[in-house]
Design goal:
Helix content is 34%, strand content 24%. It has 95 residues and is α+β, with helices and mostly antiparallel strands. A hairpin with a 7-residue loop joins strand 2 and strand 3. The longest helix has 14 residues.
Length: 95
């Protein structure tokens, strides 16, 4: 069921790109005007598991806001019950 919500979150972000700016301003204390370009990156990543088949991980969103200083963001929308592993998954995605 979580994949349905993850897909909806990604669709909203991709179809309504300018709406992410107020969210980033609020969460990260930025002062973007909304005129900045947003560059999205692929969400699919493969985890190398020594001696095992690679495992695919899909992030919710991975993008750069091209303001005065380009900044990369990774935002996840946790739609399942907390399992205590979100920090591990964020590290795996970003590493």
């Amino acid at each position: 069921m979580a994949n349905i919500y993850d897909g909806a979150f990604r669709t909203i972000l991709n179809d309504c790109r300018k709406l992410i700016i107020p969210v980033i301003n609020e969460i990260f204390g930025e002062t973007y005007t909304g005129k900045e370009e947003i560059r999205f990156y692929p969400n699919e990543h493969f985890l190398d598991q020594q001696g095992k088949a690679d495992r695919e991980r899909i992030t919710d969103t991975n993008f750069t806001v091209l303001g005065k200083i380009p900044k990369k963001y990774h935002v996840e929308c946790e739609s399942s019950l907390p399992d205590g592993k979100i920090m591990i998954r964020l590290f795996e995605y970003d590493a």
